[in-house]
Design brief:
Blueprint: E1 19-20, E2 26-27, E3 36-37, H1 40-52, H2 59-62, H3 68-76, E4 87-89, H4 93-107, E5 113-117, H5 122-133, E6 139-143, H6 150-153, E7 158-164, H7 176-185, E8 189-193, E9 212-215, E10 230-233, H8 277-288, H9 295-316, E11 323-324, E12 336-340, H10 344-353, E13 356-357, E14 359-361, E15 365-369, H11 377-393
Parallel strand pairs: 2-13, 5-6, 5-7, 7-8, 8-9
Antiparallel strand pairs: 1-3, 4-10, 9-10, 11-12, 12-15, 14-15
Helix pairs in contact: 1-8, 3-8, 4-5, 9-11
The structure holds pyridoxal-5'-phosphate.
Pyridoxal-5'-phosphate binds near residues 123 and 124.
């Protein structure tokens, strides 16, 4: 047995204890909603019972509520290889994409094409439609999965390229440095969606000279359901951020209550209105777990976990109609494995019934995310064994597993 695949030799194994993992659950859905850090309830309780209930409005100053977008951004910055003042936490990924695309277009007023990947997470596509609708004469050009066709599509009319660092479905990990260089050499602005890589894939936004990036915090950063997203801007753009959601939090002097908008310094320009402080408080607790973690160690374990799961399923589930949809080479994928099966939905429901939680994606994908801070190698072995059992016994055929829920 390969020693690196044993929990007793795992340098990250102690982190598991910082998370609440329900008894009997193998949680392989941290790429959708990360597990709760044990400190979150107490931190949120304190924010409710002390900061809100007793300290009331003084908490905007006294408890640092007003500064949370910046202080949380500073905690995320080292995880994405950015200067502390180049990341700010605010709003949702979708809203931040809207802002980032507009900011990018403002930097290339003489160009009119948004280049995006046709299989990207739908919100990226929908919001780029919304951005086009709000500007004159815009067009969108779509390229294939894994950025296939990027070079041919990168003509001198392209203002901005929007891509996901890790694809939500295939898990394909793109080469941030090479693509950013290519895009910028063609005179366009690069916007990365980091939802499926932040907190699990090492990266350096600054070193790659990325223009803008957005990402969510409720997946591998474990911020909790609907926790606010982050947005990054390259230092070179800090003084030139233009986005249409010009709310009072972005004002240079919010408490001067002036009638005219005047943009604040740096990433403040990306703020809009009042933030969800309780949600930010839970995120603050979650980010503290990353304080001493080496992101490279996370990546090493992530590669080992996904490889183990892929090998076990390929070996054991051969002949049951299971296929592998995710990127085959471990170093070219994020921290997920996507399998295919004609009855993927039913099989996933049967797995969840047995405590193995992943999710289903259309049309036939069983998606499993591996969050190295709390998923163990034993979890992976047990999950593969339970999958085999469900396939062998045909347990997934029970009628109750075909009932479709709103969230899959
Ligand atoms: C790549 C990607 N972008 C954006 C989002 C969603 O953004 P929001 O938090 O605004 O719903 C997701 C959600 O899963 C995603 O996978």
């Amino acid at each position: 047995m390969n020693n690196t695949l044993q929990d007793e030799n795992d340098p990250l194994s102690a982190y598991r204890d910082q998370f609440h993992i329900p008894k009997g659950v193998i949680y392989l859905d941290g790429n959708s909603l990360g597990a709760m850090v044990k400190t979150a309830p107490e931190r949120v309780r304190h924010a409710v019972e002390q900061e809100w209930a007793n300290d009331l409005i003084s908490s905007w100053n006294k408890a640092g509520w007003w500064e949370l977008p910046q202080s949380l951004g500073a905690k995320i910055a080292p995880l994405v290889g950015a200067a502390t003042d180049s990341v700010i936490v605010t709003d949702s990924t979708t809203i931040n994409l809207y802002k980032a695309l507009h900011a990018a277009l403002a930097l290339r007023p003489d160009r009119n094409v948004i280049l995006a990947e046709k299989d990207n997470f739908p919100t990226d596509l929908y919001i780029s439609e919304g951005v086009m609708a709000g500007r004159e004469n815009m067009q969108r050009r779509l390229i294939g999965e894994r950025a296939k066709g990027l070079e041919e599509a990168l003509k001198d009319d392209v203002a901005v390229v929007l891509l996901s660092h890790v694809d939500y479905c295939t898990g394909a990990l793109l080469d941030m440095q090479a693509i950013t260089q290519k895009v910028q050499a063609a005179g366009a602005i690069m916007v990365w969606d980091l939802c499926h890589s932040a907190g699990v894939v090492p990266m350096s936004l600054d070193d790659c000279n990325v223009d803008f990036a957005v990402g969510c915090t409720y997946k591998y950063l474990n911020g909790g359901p609907g926790s606010p997203a982050f947005i990054y801007a390259n230092k070179a753009h800090h003084d030139y951020i233009e986005q249409p959601l010009t709310g009072w939090w972005a004002h240079a002097e919010p408490f001067a209550f002036k009638q005219e908008f005047e943009v604040g310094k740096g990433l403040r320009a990306f703020l809009c209105g009042t933030q969800g402080i309780l949600s930010m408080t839970a995120l603050d607790a979650a980010l503290d777990v990353f304080k001493d973690v080496n992101i490279k160690a996370i990546r090493e374990k992530s590669v080992a976990l996904t490889s183990l799961f892929e090998n076990l399923t390929l070996e054991q589930c051969h002949g049951f109609g299971i296929g592998v949809f995710s990127e085959k080479e471990a170093t070219k994928r994020g921290s997920q494995i996507s399998l295919t099966h004609e009855n993927a939905y039913e099989i996933m429901q049967a797995l969840i019934d047995r405590g193995v939680i992943g999710d289903f994606r259309q049309p036939n994908i069983l998606r499993f995310g591996f969050s190295p801070l709390y998923v163990s190698f034993d979890d992976v072995r047990n999950a593969a064994q339970i999958l085999l059992d469900i396939l062998t016994t045909g347990a997934w055929q029970e009628a109750r597993f075909s009932k479709r829920n709103a969230v899959t």
